[in-house]
Amino acid sequence: MKAHPLPRKDITAVILAGGKARRMHGVDKGLVELLGKPLVDYIIAGLRPRVDRILISANRNLARYREFGYPVIKDSIGDYCGPLAGMASAMQAADTPLLLTVPCDSPLLPARLPETLYRAMTEADADISVAHDGKRLQQVYALLRCALLPDLQDYLGNGGRRVDSWYAQHRIAVADFSPLADSFLNLNTPRDIQAIETRLAATQATR
C-alpha cells in the first residue's frame, strides 16, 4: 500500500461544541467535567500531537472556551443550525486547505484519526473523508476540503441542515475504524458521563 504522509501544515482541526445539548439538560457539553476535567480538554489532548492548528466552534460560554488557548469561533449562519454551520464557520476561519472535524463529547479520540482519514481521502481522490466504526458512519469525524465552503454555504442558505444529505452531494471516502469502535463513544446524558467515569476509573485502577 502506497504511503500518504499526513501534511500537518495543510490541516486545521475544529472541535464542534456549538450545540444545545438538550439530552444533557442544556448544559454546555464541552464544559461538562469527566473525572475533574472538561470534555473539551480531552479532545484537545487527543488532537495536539496530531495537528498544529486547532479551533473551537462554540455558541455560548465563549470566554470560558478561550481559556483553553485556542481561537473560538461562532456559527456565522443561523441560530444553532447543527454541525454543518460549525463546519462552515471553521472553513471560513481556517487558512489551510483541509479541515478536520471532531465532536466535543467524545473523549476517546481514535488513534491516528487525521492520518487514517487523510489516507482514505487521498486514495479515493475524495472531497470528504468520513470515519466508519464498523457499523455506521461517524459523520462528524471527518476531513473536508475547505474549497467546499461556497457549496456548503449555499446548502445552508437554502435551509439544508442534514450532514448526510450534504455529504451525499460530494465524493466521499470511508475510513475504516472498526478495530477502534469504542473510541467513538459519545456522551449525551448525565448517565453516559457516570458510565464512562466508572469505566475509566476501573482502567486506571488496573494500571
Structure, briefly:
By secondary structure, this protein is of the alpha/beta class. 32% of the residues lie in helices and 21% in strands. The strands form two sheets. The protein has a seven-stranded mixed beta sheet, sandwiched between helices. A two-stranded antiparallel sheet has the order 2-3.
Task: Note the overall shape.
Answer: globular
Distance between the termini: 36 Å
Q: Which whole number gives the mean pLDDT?
A: 90
Low-confidence stretches: none
Structural category: alpha/beta
Spatial order of the strands forming the largest sheet: 5-4-1-6-8-7-9
Query: From N to C, what is the helix and strand string?
Result: EEEHEHEHEHEEHHEH
Distinct helical segment count:
7
Largest sheet: 7 strands, mixed
Based on CA atoms alone, the radius of gyration comes out at 16 Å
Strand content: 15-25%
Helical proportion, percent range: 25-40%
The count of DSSP E runs of length 2 or more, i.e. the number of strands, is 9
Blueprint (SSEs and pairs):
Layout: E1 11-17, E2 33-34, E3 37-38, H1 39-47, E4 53-58, H2 62-66, E5 72-73, H3 83-93, E6 98-103, H4 113-124, E7 128-132, E8 137-145, H5 149-157, H6 163-167, E9 172-176, H7 190-205
Parallel strand pairs: 1-4, 1-6, 4-5, 7-9
Antiparallel strand pairs: 2-3, 6-8, 7-8
